[in-house]
Amino acid sequence: MKSTLISMGMGLLFMYVAFGMYLYLNQHQFLYFPTPDTSSGYPNMALQNGTQSTNVIVINEGHKNAILYFGGNAESMAGSAAYIAKQFPHLTVYLLDYRGYGKSTGIASEEALYKDALTLYDTVSSKHERISVGGRSLGSGIATYVAAHKEVYRLVLITPFDSVVNVAQSIYPLYPVSLLLKERYDSLSRINSIKAETLIIFAQNDKVIPKENTQRLIDAFDKHALKVIRIQNRGHHDISSDEKYYKSVQEFIGEG
After folding, report:
1. CA separation for the pair 135, 144 (Å, rounded)
2. Is the pLDDT of residue 213 over 60?
3. Burial tier of 129 (Cβ tally within 10 Å: 0-12, 13-18, 19+)
4. In DSSP terms, which residues pair with 235 in a beta bridge?
């Protein structure tokens, strides 16, 4: 009996360690899901960062105010472009293809995407009076980074989280996730550096981002500079199908 229990314990330990190694070695594949290179029908702008070229789709060129939008980890900017253009006809919108996504070269990483996002801001800021920033899911972590380092008029966070580490810890509670993960996307740590009025939109039935991870982020903001909207009967992926979604963003950012 004792030897059987020891064997079972060793087997469980082996499976625990093996799955932990699997998570560690494949973490990039869990976080990034590159989208194919397809045509959006809108102009493209190339940002050069070292040897890599980052593509930006430019919608409704020539307006005095702009939105920089950072999508989810599997969101196609080319696929979203036409619908976004209809929602914000009086604003220029810049959609960033992450490295390895769409027409962008290279491999996505937290450091690289932050660098590309700041380069985009610096490249277009002189063309506009006001710049608002929006980010969905993974992109919310990039949006908070830009808002913490640059002058932003309005910040919109859609299905956001406090940090990737905390989200992963809630999914894999038995593992020391903070030691395993290389990417952090720690929005919670930079809330005090964000001066822009902020709108957080989350889905009632979000099965991807645990509610507690969104709530921690909400609780960290100054309530006088924060508006929170819950989209009823929608999940992480179909939140934008509710008419309240875009209407809320339009009202918050304004006509431009």
Report:
1. 8
2. yes
3. exposed
4. none
**In whole numbers, what is the pLDDT of the chain averaged over residues?**
94
| 3 state SS of 209 | coil
pLDDT of residue 1: 61
Give the CA dihedral 122, 192, 158, 120, nearest 10 degrees.
10
**Cα gap 223→203, rounded to integer Å:** 20
Question: Which domains does the chain carry?
Answer: 32-253 (3.40.50.1820)
Give the whole-number percent of the chain exceeding pLDDT 70: 96
Going through the chain in order, the beta strands assigned E by DSSP cover: 44-49, 52-59, 65-70, 92-96, 130-136, 154-158, 197-203, 226-231
C-alpha span between 40 and 53 (Å, rounded):
18
Cα–Cα distance between 97 and 35 in angstroms, integer? 9
Q: Give the span between the Cα atoms of 194 and 247, in whole angstroms.
A: 24
